[in-house]
Amino acid sequence: MCGIVGGIRRHSNIVDFLTDGLKRLEYRGYDSSGIAVHTPDKIARVRRVGRVQNMQDAATAKGLTGSLGIGHTRWATHGGVTEPNAHPHISGGLIAVVHNGIIENFESEKARLQNLGYEFESQTDTEVIAHSIKHEYMNNGGDLFLAVKQAAQNFHGAYAIAVIAHDNPNEMVVARMGCPLLVAFGDDETFIASDVSAVIAFTRKISYLEDGDIALLNADGIIKMIDKTGQAVNRAVKTSSISLASLELGGYNHFMQKEIYEQPKAISDTAEVFLDGGFDAINFGENAETIFKDIDSIKILACGTSYYSALTAKYWLESIAKIRTDVEIASEYRYRDVIANPKELIITISQSGETLDTMEALKFAQNQGHKYSLSICNVMESALPRASTLVLYTRAGAEIGVASTKAFTTQLVVLFGLAVTLGKLRGFVDEAMEQDFIAQLRHLPNDVQHALNLEPQIVAWASKFAAKPSALFLGRGIHYPIALEGALKLKEITYIHAEAYPAGELKHGPLALVDDNMPVVVIAPNDALLDKVKANMQEVSARGGELFVFTDLDTEFSADDKVHLIRTPRHIGVLSPIVHTVGVQLLSYHCALAKGTDVDKPRNLAKSVTVE
Ligand code: AGP
Asked: Would you kindly state where each structural domain of the chain is located, as residue ranges?
């Protein structure tokens, strides 16, 4: 969703950093962008609806230069997608602000500021921040740090803000509450951003702000910083290890394509923790063994694709570790009456680590008395792992495509590792079983590579699919969540309506949808439920439906003009859901290519969903 950048250089122009940083934040999803730069005459601003490139072209045409500036990509929440609603917002020509998050009490704040004589040009909640800081700035003798500190006391909600003042050409103030913000340090230059990918081409030295922090910056770095109690504070400076290559396309046409193809490596990097360190509780944190021995059940909270990885994991956790596992959509869990159980481990799963619904669900669980939490996350230092007792990071590398791919399969690797770890601790996994699980995990990157090699057959399917208005996805048991994931991927990037059902549920309603124009994708590996799935497929065939079946060797299906088969080269076993995910990912990708949709930035969606 929204993204923030800002920077101060001692002598040179900051505009190249602002526009480069905003382009690197494009993947998060946005609909307008803007920058504001300090110039001797005024704070000069350029804003445009649409791509950052439009805004950059306009800034170049205007000859915008200056050594202090802020920038923003906006994903509309309060107010439509218009230029006046785009950030930065300026109050009285004096104060310019960019903001991520939502000021929940903006209506009452707006009324208060209007009574004080402030006029509003936009429909955004952010404009109250600009006017409020300007008001405090005037009341506090032009002290920008103090003005932000005073104004922040009026804001209820979540924010990360960066603020500059026209009569202060060398300084910027930033503040964070509930939304990520970092300060990055170069030589004679200081940057701020909401996401590390914006700064990594310029410097790797980074400090992450904590909730409640307010900092005053100049080109030398942080001049002063206070925490939420008002005490002076320093935050550790870390060296980011994110590779620049992971943020760029390389030889690929789309990030989604690149990320699908990166899966063998992402899986092997993520599995390394178990293959080198064994299925040991220590992989999840210092006191994980004590916690794992004390728990009697698990609840997993997540959204979207991460929720489907949770649904898959439930099968492993209950069959391998024999521990009762509930899975809930985070945004539902946090608004119902729950019966808290302090012996239940709360697991949150999130690629970004900053999904607001998941974060709030974790806070809600903690407030209900849940003392144990584990975060499975792909982004170091993000909000969810920081708020959790235990953490194990997926090592997928940066995922830029809005449609999550390698994050999902690596989440499954970690969740499988957790199931085996708990199974060992609880006495359900003996030495022989453990060796078998290790062998399967070792083989997994190869199996995924073989699944990728099936791409030409999937391209042929995609040409049939792309013209269809809707599709059904079926699976049973542990492959049902993979059907759900397949349907979500197709919806997200092709806009084809798709639904997933457990195959046995077909006859209870959705079978009415099946006719010769309804493609039905079936995940049908050679497992204990195969005969049941075959019977469900007969129900489709008998109604003229066209079947597209992902299966394994030796499943004794026969293909005809209404039954299309793609087989993995061997029967996979317990990790089969991971391998069969690749097929549905590639199917969506090639359908999107055939339809000409924007694969990496599908309409209406954002990569990091930081609003409710
Ligand atoms: C996946 O393709 C989606 N873009 C979306 O469902 C995503 O998985 C969801 O928003 C959760 O994100 P998270 O993993 O970053 O928490």
From this structure: 3-246, 255-445, 455-595
Question: In the numeric block, which tokens belong to residue 267?
Answer: 């899986």
B/e letters for 350-386, b = 16+ CB within 10 Å, e = fewer, are bbbbbbbbbbbbbebbbeeebebbbbbbbbbbbbbbb
Condensed to tens digits (0 to 9), the pLDDT of residues 62-120 reads 999 999 999 999 988 788 899 999 999 999 999 999 999 888 898 999 999 999 999 99
* Distance in angstroms (rounded) separating the CA atoms of residues 36 and 72: 9
Nearest Cα residue to atom 6 of ligand 1 = 304
Q: pLDDT class for 253, splitting at 50, 70, 90? A: very high
Q: In sequence order, which residues have a C-beta less than 8 Å from that of residue 254 and are 6 or more positions away? A: 401, 589, 599, 600
Token reading at 133: 């800081």
Find the 500 Cα to ligand 1 centroid distance in Å.
Answer: 17
Number of H helices, E strands in the chain: 18, 24
Q: Higher-confidence residue: 421 or 354?
A: 421
Give 200 Cα–ligand 1 centroid separation in angstroms. 23
Which pLDDT score, from 0 to 100, does residue 503 have?
Answer: 93
- Peptide bond between residue 40 and the one before it cis (omega within 30 degrees of 0): no
Average pLDDT over residues 462-490: 95
Encode pLDDT of 283-321 as tens digits.
999 999 999 999 999 999 999 999 999 999 999 999 999
Angle at which helices 406-425 and 263-277 pack, to 10 degrees?
20
Q: What are phi and psi of 175, to 5 degrees?
A: -150, 150
The CATH superfamily of 455-595 is: Glucose-6-phosphate isomerase like protein; domain 1 (3.40.50.10490)
- Is residue 216 within 8 Å of residue 144, measured between CB atoms? yes
User: Is 179 assigned a catalytic role?
Assistant: no
| pLDDT of 605 above 90 | no
| Ligand 1 nearest-atom number relative to CA 304 | 6
Which secondary-structure segment (H or E) carries 392? strand 390-393
Query: Do 3-246 and 255-445 come out as alike in CATH topology?
Result: no
Domain 255-445: give its CATH architecture. 3-Layer(aba) Sandwich (3.40)
Give rounded-to-5 percent helix, strand, coil for the chain. Answer: 40, 25, 35
Q: Please give the share of the chain, as a percent, with pLDDT higher than 70.
A: 100
Q: Which amino acid is at 518?
A: M
Task: Select the CATH number that applies to the domain covering 3-246 from these four: 3.60.20.10, 3.30.1330.10, 3.40.50.920, 3.40.50.720.
Answer: 3.60.20.10
Ligand 1 atom at minimal distance to the Cα of residue 405? 2
- Rounded Cα distance between 589 and 597, Å, is 10
